[in-house]
Design goal:
This protein is α+β, with helices and mostly antiparallel strands. Helix content is about 40%, strand content about 20%. The strands form six sheets. The protein has a five-stranded antiparallel sheet with strand order 3-2-9-8-7. It has a five-stranded mixed sheet with strand order 11-12-13-14-15, sandwiched between helices. Bound molecules: 6-diazenyl-5-OXO-L-norleucine.
């Protein structure tokens, strides 16, 4: 069933949020903020909850689209934007990152005359000051657009609240003058405060806040619009400060009990962001003495406790990064090898190893992988690391991986990456250092990478590959055991067929009226989607399923110039009638070839199912 066909209420998280909403709606404690007169007009009954996942699914319950002013929640996003545009050095020179233990509107600065952190008014006004320095008269428009990108829609200022705070904001004016006295604020106090009051008066809903929080959880990329709003560098620092100072004087208790990076506003909103998972937005204007929404706090706490979302309560097993581990002896590529080459691969199977990796790779996974690779080392010459199920690789793990690759190069092991997902950050980060490493290459598909390793192993034994050779009919496995007279009689029925590179020999869906013996060249059997089922060369038969089935099940293409001998089914029927013993032989050979293929397929299933 498509996700959009599922009624939201049927999803377990929706049911949980609905229970929270029903239970905490009954909590009438707290007061609507009144120090900004306009805020006192909020409806205390309003209560909305929204959760946005990092893959862009939005859960909403209650008054999730009711708008209210963002207030202090803007501080977190403006801090991220200041880091992004002005740079950490400049930002850190004017504002600290220590919890203050004071109320949000405290006029106290740190001993170095810097605000304690960007989440209290003093630090937030300093950050807005930095944006004003940079953007001058355009500062507010710039901030409005940037904050709108976090929300994924154009936000607007609530003019009455803005004016109300400007008229009643003497305490912030005092803070701003103090900052200017200490050189933290450079510009005109009224101009900076104008931008600060406007940013606080932006209208948002719980839904907007959940999208903004999910953008932080998604390393700065808005999961609904796909836009990269800020870098993961700015996000990590912002979430850190939200964790230690986002809930003001209750910050310590918050980390201890809830353990999710969060930020509240006196308008009644809370954002909470859980990296790689979700963003939560709540709205209820009844706030406690510290300025935090009471129902919002209870929702965050319940969510964290019920689902074990505390950031230090991590689950995971580094070993799950390996989806499958095997060598070229147990799982071969889809190229069918002549018996001599097959024997070489069986004898040298330990020279080519494959590790199929899965999930986001972090430090712990690669550390584990480094030990697994060390255990494979004896006799290893080719190592394939398949990344088609890997969505991301952290910087720390890339550093470790680089060391692993250097060790392998010293041990003369060549490494192939396959399945690197195109156009993803992982392709970009790998391509930054892959080309510089000797003995490391990238091949698109895992099957092609295995084929490459097989070719190398065979080549180093024989000095050549048998692909281009021509064979005699007597070398055909399907015809083994026929005597000379039978072979001559059969040969008279065969028609020579030549194909150019890229030409189609057989089309899926057509009636199966003949089979072909490949005399020279290479052919590939492919599904119409392009997926390769097998590659065959001289000495092998193609389209032989015609002996059992009435229609062609796949296409066959000439990968090189190809010469074949075609045996029509009606001619073969006449041959069977006149040479019954040979006919039986051929059918028995076919059964043997199919049994061999089944054994290979069963081996693959066993290897892959054991993970
Ligand atoms: O600076 C102020 O007073 C407000 N505009 C924002 C305060 C706020 O939201 C504090 N949060 N709990």
């Amino acid at each position: 069933m498509d996700e959009s066909q599922v009624s939201v209420a049927e999803l377990p998280l929706a049911r949980f949020l609905a229970r929270c909403h029903a239970e905490y709606s009954r909590d009438q404690s707290g007061e609507v903020a009144a120090y900004i007169p306009e805020l006192a007009l909020a409806d205390p009954a309003h209560f909305g909850i929204a959760v946005t996942t990092v893959d862009g699914y939005v859960y909403e319950i209650g008054d999730s689209t009711v708008e209210f002013t963002i207030q202090s929640i803007s501080k977190a996003f403006v801090f991220a934007l200041a880091l992004e545009t002005v740079g950490a050095e400049r930002v850190e020179s004017i504002v600290g990152v220590e919890p203050s233990g004071d109320a949000f509107n405290s006029i106290r600065l740190g001993s170095d005359n810097r605000p304690f952190n960007p989440m209290v008014n003093a630090g937030a006004i300093a950050c807005t000051g930095l944006i004003c320095e940079r953007e001058q008269d355009g500062a507010f428009d710039w901030l409005l657009q940037a904050l709108s990108r976090f929300a994924g829609r154009r936000l607007e200022v609530d003019e009455p609240t803005f004016r109300s705070e400007r008229e009643s904001g003497d305490r912030n004016r005092a803070i701003a003058y103090l900052l200017r006295n200490h050189g933290v604020l450079q510009g005109d106090v009224d101009q900076v405060l104008d931008v600060y009051f406007r940013q606080c008066a932006l209208r948002v809903s719980a839904r907007d806040l959940s999208v903004m929080a999910a953008t932080l959880a998604h390393k700065g990329r808005n999961p609904l619009t796909g836009e990269q709003v800020v870098s993961s560098y700015a996000v990590a620092r912002t979430l850190s400060v939200m964790t230690s100072s986002g809930m003001y004087d209750s910050a310590g208790r918050w980390v201890y009990r809830v353990g999710i990076s969060a930020k509240s506003g006196v308008g009644g909103g809370i954002v909470a962001s859980l990296p790689s998972q979700l963003g939560l937005g709540t709205y209820s204007p009844l706030i406690d003495d510290q300025g935090n929404s009471i129902r919002g706090l209870r929702t965050c706490e319940a969510l964290s406790t019920h689902f074990g979302l505390h950031m230090l309560n991590r689950v995971g097993d580094v070993r799950t990064c390996i989806a499958a581990s095997y060598d070229v002896g147990s799982v071969s590529s889809r190229r069918s090898r002549p018996p001599r080459e097959q024997a070489i691969l069986e004898a040298h199977h330990g020279e080519g190893a494959i590790l199929e990796l899965t999930g986001a790779l972090s430090f712990g996974n690669i550390e584990y992988l480094s030990r697994r690779i060390r255990n494979l080392r004896s006799g290893l010459r080719y190592l394939i690391l398949d990344l088609r199920r890997v969505p991301s690789v952290s910087e720390a793990s890339l550093r470790l991986l680089a060391d692993v690759l250097d060790d392998l190069a010293q041990g003369h092991v060549e490494v192939v990456f396959s399945g690197i997902p195109r156009g993803t950050p992982i392709e970009q980060s790998l391509s930054e250092w892959l080309p510089d490493r000797s003995g490391v290459r990238s091949i698109g598909l895992l099957d092609e990478a295995i084929e490459w390793a097989e070719d190398r192993i065979i080549h180093s034994e024989t000095g050549d590959l048998e692909l281009e050779r021509s064979t005699d009919l007597s070398e055909q496995e399907l015809l083994s055991g026929l005597d000379a007279a039978e072979m001559t009689a059969l040969a008279e029925l065969l028609v020579e067929r030549d194909y150019r590179t890229g030409e189609r020999l057989i089309s899926a869906g057509e009636p199966a009226a003949s089979l072909m013996f490949v005399a020279s060249g290479i052919v590939s059997v492919r599904l119409q989607s392009g997926v390769r089922l097998a590659t065959l060369s001289a000495g092998m038969a193609v389209g032989e399923m015609a002996l059992l089935e009435t229609a062609r099940s796949a296409d066959v293409w000439a990968d090189t110039k190809v010469a074949c001998l075609e045996l029509a089914l009606d001619a073969f029927a006449r041959f069977r009638a006149s040479h019954p013993r040979a006919g039986e032989r051929i059918m028995a050979n076919l059964a043997r070839l199919l049994a061999k293929r089944l054994i290979v397929a069963n081996n693959k299933i066993e290897v892959l199912a054991s993970y």
